[in-house]
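R.M. (postdoc): so does anyone remember the format we settled on? I'll just put the structure tokens first.
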């Protein structure tokens, strides 16, 4: 997490849909906003969320009556990517029915928050030739929102992990041009732009725990390493592959800690499943769950699952808190200009 000066979202409320471990919540609360509702269907993630925030999120959002959700200023939703069944002309809101995005849309339609802040995997922007994203955009525009989207990498915001995601920010138009202008389809002046990249100053080595737990050295003599003799360890903004084990497939590659981390994954196999392997003090190992937490922007005070496999899966599915903070700061600027 980055240190935020002041509380630029003080007095504002938000809801945390598809909450996971609460990455959106950490980001917005760091800017002074207050969470009034959360929803997450995964039981294990619910437990971790409750340990950290003192409340257990509601379950399956598809079964929640939108009228029962508290009023709020910002709707946060890292909704899963589902295939939209699109035939013929796009019909916006109607085309989104049957997907989890529809549950975001029906809540937005009922509660009319000032801002909708969404996140998804990078491929979401290219899914079905870009038509899926267009349906989301048209749906939000039909509901009276200006729609902004961009693919951002955590690497460009101080986090040494190649993790690219599509971020979508929507502003209710009548907050900027009045109800009459919005209804007339006026072109509202909204002072919003996604955050500009910052130089990378840290590498994987800056996120490691003290080397005291030998169980982290998961590669033994059954998997001898084959080194790349041309690779030298010097600081880089790219992943530096030093060696491979077994056949060198995904999860069987060893990287330098002086480079960046490969994308953390919720799934996948191999000796170094879900994190990739790193050469630490001469020993190849995968990352510890706490190190994964750090690379996702979660502070050391955050309580993680005591079940390693669950922890790896949860962080592989999570959001990078730092990136959300940078975007939320831009949202705060836009709202301030509207006021």
């Amino acid at each position: 997490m980055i240190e935020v000066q002041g509380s630029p979202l003080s007095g504002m409320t938000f809801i945390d849909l598809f909450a996971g471990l609460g990455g959106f919540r950490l980001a917005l609360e760091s800017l002074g906003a207050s969470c009034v509702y959360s929803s997450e269907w995964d039981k294990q993630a619910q437990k971790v969320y409750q340990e950290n925030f003192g409340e257990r999120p509601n379950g399956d959002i598809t079964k929640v009556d939108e009228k029962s959700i508290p009023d709020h200023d910002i709707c946060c939703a890292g909704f899963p990517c589902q295939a939209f069944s699109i035939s013929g002309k796009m019909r916006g809101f109607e085309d989104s029915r049957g997907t989890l995005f529809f549950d975001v849309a029906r809540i937005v339609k009922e509660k009319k928050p000032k801002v909708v802040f969404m996140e998804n995997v990078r491929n979401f922007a290219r899914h079905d030739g870009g038509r899926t994203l267009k349906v989301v955009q048209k749906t939000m525009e039909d509901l009276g929102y200006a729609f902004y989207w961009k693919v951002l990498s955590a690497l460009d915001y101080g986090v040494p992990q190649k993790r690219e995601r599509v971020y979508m920010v929507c502003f209710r138009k009548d907050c900027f041009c009045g109800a009459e202008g919005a209804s007339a389809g006026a072109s509202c002046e909204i002072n919003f732009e996604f955050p500009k990249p910052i130089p990378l100053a840290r590498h994987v080595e800056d996120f490691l725990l003290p080397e005291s737990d030998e169980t982290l050295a998961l590669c033994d003599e059954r998997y001898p390493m084959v080194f790349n003799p041309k690779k030298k360890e010097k600081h880089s903004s790219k992943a530096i592959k030093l060696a491979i084990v077994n056949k060198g497939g995904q999860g069987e590659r060893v990287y330098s800690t002086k480079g960046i981390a490969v994308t953390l994954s919720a799934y996948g196999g191999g000796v170094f499943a879900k994190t990739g392997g790193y050469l630490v003090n001469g020993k190849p190992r995968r990352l510890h769950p706490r190190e994964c937490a750090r690379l996702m922007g979660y502070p050391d005070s955050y309580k993680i699952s005591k079940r390693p496999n669950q922890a790896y899966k949860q962080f592989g599915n999570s959001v990078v808190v730092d990136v959300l903070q940078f975007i939320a700061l831009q949202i705060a600027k836009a709202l301030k200009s509207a006021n």
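R.M.: ...and that's the designed sequence above, right after the tokens. Also worth knowing: The chain has a mean pLDDT of 87. The CA atoms of residues 195 and 327 lie 6 Å apart.
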